[in-house]
Amino acid sequence: GAGVSQTPSNKVTEKGKYVELRCDPISGHTALYWYRQSLGQGPEFLIYFQGTGAADDSGLPNDRFFAVRPEGSVSTLKIQRTERGDSAVYLCASSSSGRTGELFFGEGSRLTVL
Amino acid sequence: QQQVKQSPQSLIVQKGGISIINCAYENTAFDYFPWYQQFPGKGPALLIAIRPDVSEKKEGRFTISFNKSAKQFSLHIMDSQPGDSATYFCAASKDPYRYNFNKFYFGSGTKLNVKP
Fold it and tell me: Would you say residue B18 has pLDDT above 60?
């Protein structure tokens, strides 16, 4: 497919477990973003990658959250010791560069922490 | 602190009517204001965007009006159609072109329902 692909689309886990969410951006897009969308709210910025490096991770809520993009393409958002408050839709977006205002979002990974 | 405030939370409009959604921002450093449209189960998609050097931008049935002194901007959907039924998010950021970065602050969204 040509769009941003996110897996899994749905993840149910128990409090305290470890979770990984994967994002496959549009081919050739150098900029990659993670946003979190809670029910009834707008997306909230988490982290931005330009290439392999995290250019801005100021939105990560605490040190339980970590993201990587080792080869400058696929990215993984990792959440340790999940809490019920982590339940949300995690959206990944990519853009051809940081200079364009258009983000292409995936359909998101819905995380439910029981 | 919510950087972008959006209203109304929900909106019902008859087919052919005008839908108006309003947003206000605090940070005067913001100079890029996009609107995103989100259908259920999908990610948001860019609809239209404006920079503060103009007071209005129109693309088809969609128009952004921008008031820099009031720090407010709004989306107008003319001749609203049932297919426009979706959630609309305003957003604000520093200019991506200048800063090489899209750190958007999104409003809380407006759920639009266009009745046939």
Answer: yes
